[in-house]
Amino acid sequence: MPSLRLGNIAPDFEAETTAGPIKFHEWIGDSWAILFSHPGDFTPVCTTELGEVARRADDFAKRNVKLIGISANGLKDHNKWVEDINDFGASYGPTNVQFPIARIAIADEDRKISTLYDMLDEQDATNRDAKGLPFTIRTVFVVDPKKVIRLTIAYPASTGRNFDEILRVVDSLQLGDKHRITTPVNWNKGDDVIVHPSVGNDEAKVLFPEVTFHKQPYLRTTPLKVSE
Ligand code: BEZ
């Protein structure tokens, strides 16, 4: 079971990254952050993921989200691999696009940060390096500007993550922080939302003039106009 839970403060750490040394909390600043681990450099699924993250840089920036990757590799490998990510990424993105975001990755050769964040899965015997040491698995931590962990996900090494889904959750969290709402199954930005259960019906009519009261008394939905 992961030792870090939703609502915990994301542990702070110092790290060497491809963009220089950082202190995690200081680096996050007033932004949201996504810390995501991957099994290793020069691996196929990870190469597609990092290319995608870089290609979607504007989607994350628009939401005030900074991304930082991590694996148990050294800086030399990270920097060399960035060339591959850029090269592969450019083959399915617009030409001459560089992917600067892929340059921000933590070099966690000694697995100190991966251990702190419980990113090593001793149970997964298929995910080990040549020496038999566990690779980092594909974890995702969404951290808000107060440094609180708001989402954790773990994917198997064999399955690339769906960054549309991660962005969707960020949208839901950010909207829920601003409005007294939750979001239903398969919700996407722009779809109707659910009035938070803590809002009484009279208050719901004031807060959400277009509210619909469904047959189930606990289910109230409403459109929500949001600026980009
Ligand atoms: C990959 O990124 O392709 C990968 C890495 C480790 C194990 C399996 C797949």
TrEMBL record:
Coiled coil: none annotated. The active site is at 46 (cysteine sulfenic acid (-soh) intermediate). GO terms for biological process: cell redox homeostasis. One of its GO terms (cellular component) is mitochondrion. Keywords: Antioxidant, Oxidoreductase, Peroxidase, Redox-active center. PROSITE patterns: THIOREDOXIN_2. GO terms for molecular function: peroxiredoxin activity. CDD domains: PRX_1cys. InterPro entries: AhpC/TSA, Peroxiredoxin_AhpC-typ, Peroxiredoxin_C, PRX_1cys, Thioredoxin-like_sf, Thioredoxin_domain. The keyword Protein biosynthesis does not apply. Residues 4-175 form the Thioredoxin domain. PANTHER family: MCG48959-RELATED, PEROXIREDOXIN-6. Thiol-specific peroxidase that catalyzes the reduction of hydrogen peroxide and organic hydroperoxides to water and alcohols, respectively. Belongs to the peroxiredoxin family. Prx6 subfamily. This is Thioredoxin domain-containing protein. It comes from Suillus luteus UH-Slu-Lm8-n1.
